[in-house]
Amino acid sequence: MVHVCIPPALILATGLSLSACGDIKGALEFADTRDDFLSRRATLEDRSNTAYLGVPETGEATYRGEASLAVGTKSDGVVLLGDAAITVDFDDSTLSGEMGNFSGFDTNEDFSKYAGVLVLEDGVIGAVNPNDVEGQIVGVLTGDGNVIGVDAFWEGHLKGTPIIGILGDTTPGSSTFTLNDDVVPGTLVTAVTD
Question: Which InterPro entries does this chain map to (predicted)?
Answer without folding.
Answer: OMP/PagP_B-barrel
